[in-house]
Amino acid sequence: MTGERQQNVAGKAHDRPFADLPAGIRGMGQNGEGRGIPAGFSMTDRSYSRMKCPVCGEDCIKNASEILALRHEIFKPCPDCSGRTFDKQVPLPDISIAPPCSCGKRFIDEVFAHVYAIRIEEGDLNRQDPLRAAGIPLIHPGFAMASAPYLPEKSLVLLSHTITRQTADRLMAEVPEMRGVVKCGDFVPGIEDIDLDGIPEVHTLLAGCDVRANIFTAQTEPIVVYKQQSTMHIEFPRGYDPKIIAVGANVRKFEPRTFVDALCGAGTLGILGALLGVPHVILNDAWYAAAFWAAYNVRVNGEQMKVDSVDLKYDYEEMKQRPVEREPRLIAETTGEQSIEVYQGDFRQLHTVLPADVDLSVIDIFEKRDRELTRRVADEWRSRVGGEVFIP
Ligand SMILES: [Zn+2]
Ligand SMILES: [Zn+2]
């Protein structure tokens, strides 16, 4: 695909800004090939750098070192880049669309103005709506930035409560920076309740691909964490993350042999433990998407760990068939000097599969303001599992 030329909004051809960024994902979804993930995936296998995305089947997932190498330049303007800054609280003053620069990037506000203009034309916004009504922009890859980004192709996932499929298709066709469009409901996707009550809901991917990465910076190792945005809650790295600092401090203090991340979400805290050199790390989440992406992120960051291979036992479609598990089932494990395991299950049943030598656990529960609940959870864990426990 290198050297392929694509049409920009003004109809003028321009080079793809980053030859090593994902190629176009139009026409995705029809191609069943590449959706499953090969079991027994060796870290030394050359195919490691060509991980197929489980959502779109394309090469939209890179390993951590590739993403990290891009991050200093990816959103920087070239000398010719320029762009207007708009007030998001008021309607766009005039509907005029500025095309991307010859370098292929465009200032985020200009991209947002383009989205707004298309949504006005499609009738899902009206001219009195403020610019921010165009949606929630999530940048790929997301990390703490000192200044507003200039976006290259396929770097924006847009979330909106009111968007239609027709508009989403048009955005994907006409706005080159668009990576995926998600219609969201009034809920946090996935499991909200510690007792696993209720049926978890997910947002709807309308067009493109909504798999994106966040880069979290710990004192030592940056961590790259992918997730499918429609299935997981929104988070964005701020450059200062108390949970990451807490894990770093506790791992250094207790030097655990076995570290458990009992409610792991997409895996950030457990993976940090592995990057800090803990020999045995166990991650767990009852929600299929969390457990899957945690396992996938072990693979994404695996080059920086002492692991030879990462074996995912189920593909994404198989995991989706069992969205919430109570009894823990092993869904991924590594071979090599460091042992990393990922389970899908209720964290309160995890003690049935844990080894006897767990010496540090992190339990990242949602309901932290409920002091009584957090104390009960930590006490119960101590009595069943033992070792040090902290709630970040
Ligand atoms: Zn994808
Ligand atoms: Zn430029």
From TrEMBL:
Signal peptide residues on this chain, from the entry's feature table: none
Biological process according to GO: methylation
Gene3D superfamilies attached to this UniProt entry: Vaccinia Virus protein VP39 (3.40.50.150)
GO molecular function: methyltransferase activity
Assigned keywords, A-Z: Methyltransferase, Transferase
Region named Disordered: 1-38
Protein name per its UniProtKB record: Rna methyltransferase related
Organism field: hydrocarbon metagenome
Composition-biased stretches (Gly residues): 26-37
